[in-house]
Design brief:
By secondary structure, this protein is an alpha/beta fold. It has two domains: 52 residues, no CATH class; 193 residues, 3-Layer(aba) Sandwich (Rossmann fold). Helices cover 42% and strands 16% of the residues. The chain is built from 13 helices and seven strands. The longest helix is centred in the N-terminal third of the chain and has 18 residues. The structure holds S-adenosylmethionine. The site of S-adenosylmethionine has 21 residues, from α7 and β2.
Length: 253
Amino acid sequence: MILEEVKDKKEYRGLSDAFVSRVVHLYDGKYNIYVEKEKKKLIKEVRAKLRELYGAFRLPGYQKKEKILVQMKSWDDKETAERILSLHMSTLERMHSYQKLYARLQQEIPFKTVLDIGCGLNVFSLPWMGRVDYYGIDVNKDEVDFCNVYLKKFELTGGVRWGDVLSLDTVVKTDVCFLFKVLEGFEALERGSTEKLLKKITSPYIVASFATRSLGGGKAISARRLKWFEALVPAAEKFSLGGEVYYIIKRNV
Ligand SMILES: C[S@@+](CC[C@H](N)C(=O)[O-])C[C@H]1O[C@@H](n2cnc3c(N)ncnc32)[C@H](O)[C@@H]1O
């Protein structure tokens, strides 16, 4: 089966089946999988897409994260947390904005529980967020396990769930749900997935963010591309910080 063949490489083994299948389906009809050469091309293309959707965020030294975590002295040890946050592109780019970001969010939304969808390593921003119950979801088993080791090590309440959020029927209700830099990736996987996902989220507040610079802090990318999102859901507030634009959405749930 294509799914097994795609995952038959260390790098992809930790991805959820539902997520990989979703990517395989993007190429339905493009290749004849009964012709060996075409099947190989399909596998190559699927792996490249997977790398683009989740793997491109890992930075050199990523494998050292477990060793760094051993050195972490307390749940709010900012110095060590920064070393871990700097191993993932999204958290590295946001690292110097966490203080301001969470101060602002706490002012608008007094939250004690968080659901972080497509969380990556964002749990390591808890030292700036404060001691809240933290729930995350990500497709990447390796990252999920690692985040759970941290939560367990310091007996923090919460947990990170492994899975393709687009395939889950329900998600936990929290005071706020973070959708940091994930929606454009979800839309690339399945057009209209944001609308469906918003219906699944039962938290009274959502904070969604989008990059305003290309990956790696490069060229500015036009915010006009986000018109679809602004039309889909009215935001109570919108602000830019670091290389991101944030939307606070208040809902009647
Ligand atoms: C650009 S990164 C953002 C990480 C984090 N939200 C942040 O901003 O620090 C996208 C994350 O979404 C995860 N992801 C991608 N597709 C997903 C899906 N269908 N379900 C759950 N997580 C997904 C990836 O593994 C990756 O960690």
